[in-house]
Amino acid sequence: MTLADVIASTTWAEVKAALRWLFPHEMEQLPGYRQVFWELRQMKPEPDPMRISIELQLLASDDEDSTPEVVGRDGTLNQDLEGFKYLGKHANSEYGAEEVRWSLSLRPRRNWLGMKIESATLRMYPSPQIIAYCLNDMTFHGFSESENRAVSEELRRRVAEIEAMSQQERDEKLIPAEKVLADLKSKYGLRD
Q: At what angle do helices 30-42 and 127-138 cross, to 10 degrees?
């Protein structure tokens, strides 16, 4: 079942109720969510090999509840990623054998519609909640696709800028990930 199938079989009233329950702090955004919902119902899906999964995100603090997160899966394993070898002790065989959890927030909405939804997600969440979680994720950067495109273009521009830097410029202007992580761990008392 694709996201388009789920949207076609669900009413706005059901999705609105799910949004109110799941995201009560975003009630002022309901008109934007409504607009996107109706746009999606009119759009033609573009088949996409990515699969939508809603999974509990384990939080660093034991006193916080885990929160559902929308992720994409396409069969790529963590060990297949170029940066896997730099994960230190996290680069173990168990983690390496897991599928990558891709962000979908900047994907074109036609592609979202053509993605299949993982069977575990379909069993765990009713259709209105699946749509609510997906709407929340796909509008993270804005309620229009032009806002999403602008964010994507800015990210591409920044990557190109970094790739064009000499090693000396990188050393002067960039902060190594290891230092950022160490600073965050120190500041927030995080464990490995």
A: 100
